[in-house]
Amino acid sequence: MYERENELSNEIIGAAITVHRELGPGLLESTYEACLEYELLDRGISVERQVPQQVFYRGVKLECGYRLDLLVENMVIVELKTVEQFAPIHSAQLLTYLKLRRLWLGMLINFNVPVLKQGIKRLVNN
Fold first, then answer.
1. What is the 3-state secondary structure of the chain?
2. 97-100 — which CB contacts under 8 Å span 24+ positions?
3. Claim: this prediction has a pTM higher than 0.85
4. Between the CA atoms of 24, 13, 98 and 67, what dihedral angle is there, to the nearest 10 degrees?
5. Where are the domains of the chain?
6. Average pLDDT of the chain?
7. Best label site of 48, 112, 113, 115, fewest CB within 10 Å?
């Protein structure tokens, strides 16, 4: 049912590992965001960066300044971090974005780790 999202997840992880191997930890989140966008586009994957996310409250669309770091193929939200470790608020933020967009899969990627697989977390919207 969610085969394409899972394929994209694998592609995103591969692209993120390539970026992390090239740059290592310690840079700004915006640097990793630009490089991951480039890497995904280079692989022929559609990606949008800094996508505005509105909030609907009582039937009214509100612009609250929320932005998705990356939206891949209009199916997977990728939120990037450069933190010591994930905090519960990071997962809550991504799950909220998934609900607002009515999407199934999101990924948190923390580039501030020695080995990138330690900084990848997949989240699904039930």
1. CCHHHHHHHHHHHHHHHHHHHHHCCCCCHHHHHHHHHHHHHHCCCCEEEEEEEEEEECCEEEEEEEEEEEEECCCEEEEEECCCCCCHHHHHHHHHHHHHHCCCEEEEEECCCCCHHHHEEEEECC
2. 97/53, 97/66, 97/68, 98/123, 98/124, 98/125, 99/125, 100/53, 100/54, 100/55, 100/56
3. yes
4. 40
5. 3-124
6. 94
7. 115
